[in-house]
Amino acid sequence: MISYVLVQTVIIYIFLKNIEIYMGKGLYIHIPLCFKKCNYCNFVSYPISKVKFKITDYIKTLKKEMKEFENEKIDTVYIGGGTPSLLDPEEIENIVSGIKQNFKVSGLEEFTIEINPFDFNIENIRKMQKSGINRFSFGFQSFDNNKLEKLGRIHRRRDLENIKKYREEFNNFSLDLIFGLKNDIKLIESELRKLIEFNPQHISIYNLKVEKNTKIFKMLENNKIELDNEDAQSKTYSYINRLLKENGYNHYEISNYAKKGFESKHNLKYWRFKPYIGLGVSASGYYDNILYTNYSSYDKYKNNGYKSIQKEIKKVQKRYFRIMMGLRLKEGVILNKEEYSIIRKFFDKNNLDKYFIFRNKRISIKEKYFFISNSLIGRILDELF
């Protein structure tokens, strides 16, 4: 006789698979063009003055790549870069039209595009809104002109004030800030208060990471800039968390804060390790149990079948990514019985409970320890894998 438990397990499995089938995927589109490479940028992007291909050709190739995922249901779109806002409204509309022609978009909830404050144009924004884009992510990074210059940003504070004039035209927008340069702890209070005056629904605040192949790495080597030490950065981070919480923002992910209901639906797919499609030069995706990355060279991307790396994700790897990404979230991640048992013993042995919250089978990092989350997540992954 088939046991009741087995029947229930099968029913739950079928239910979850159906949810996965009918739930929309995320769609990321990479625009690898910019006015000038920022000093800290480690993404694949090319200054527009140096590219050898036409934007119209790039969009044509993008639309061909869309055909590979024809009729997929999507519920979030994110156009990033690079600097997508340097495209003309007609070029952006061409991309949007390709999305509508190739994907099922009736359940589309969130459509984000990144905007550089330098080329902010309210008429262009209104055209984007008419085309269906309903969320805008502005790369402010700082309100201080000296800091913006060190970061290699081309906009200045006056550009941010120009955006403020049109604040009421945005129902859903996100602003970015960067901290970590020397004495940022003295600057951050005024920066945050200026940011809060915009009353954005979402805020992303990143601790400056210095990557080897960036201009800022050379600047640091040549003593042209200094970074705050770890203690100062930790204090800055704590201050940021406290002030944003006082102003109604939920710290839902290590670097992200949102008013209720305005968490980034698209980025939550990454952190919960849900399927998403990546299109364009250097874009990555997780689709049909395959993790892939496209060529970073446009010629190879166009002529060699888009993808440079494709890797099937096995069960153990899926578990690795699910835990690694999920622990970035305030909500944490649900563990199965085996994972819970291993981690529980590890915590008891190493006295790690003070850093984490255990609730039923869910584990999450306490908010006050988010700043050292990389180290904490690394210790858990080392123990499990």
TrEMBL record:
- Entry GO CC: cytoplasm
- Which residues belong to any copy of the Radical SAM core domain? 19-250
A molecular function (GO) held by this record is: metal ion binding
Query: Which CDD domains does the record associate with it?
Result: Radical_SAM
* Keyword Glycoprotein set for record: no
UniProt keywords (A-Z) are: 4Fe-4S, Chaperone, Cytoplasm, Heme, Iron, Iron-sulfur, Metal-binding, S-adenosyl-L-methionine
Coarsely, its chief localization is cytoplasm
Q: Could you give a single Gene Ontology term from the biological process aspect?
A: porphyrin-containing compound biosynthetic process
Q: Which Pfam families match?
A: Radical_SAM (PF04055)
What are the subcellular locations of this protein? Answer: Cytoplasm
Q: Spell out the PANTHER family in the cross-references.
A: COPROPORPHYRINIGEN III OXIDASE (PTHR13932), RADICAL S-ADENOSYL METHIONINE DOMAIN-CONTAINING PROTEIN 1, MITOCHONDRIAL (PTHR13932:SF5)
Q: Which family does it belong to?
A: Belongs to the anaerobic coproporphyrinogen-III oxidase family. HemW subfamily.
Per the entry, what this protein does is: Probably acts as a heme chaperone, transferring heme to an unknown acceptor. Binds one molecule of heme per monomer, possibly covalently. Binds 1 [4Fe-4S] cluster. The cluster is coordinated with 3 cysteines and an exchangeable S-adenosyl-L-methionine.
Protein name as catalogued:
Heme chaperone HemW
> What is the species listed in this Swiss-Prot or TrEMBL entry?
Candidatus Mcinerneyibacterium aminivorans
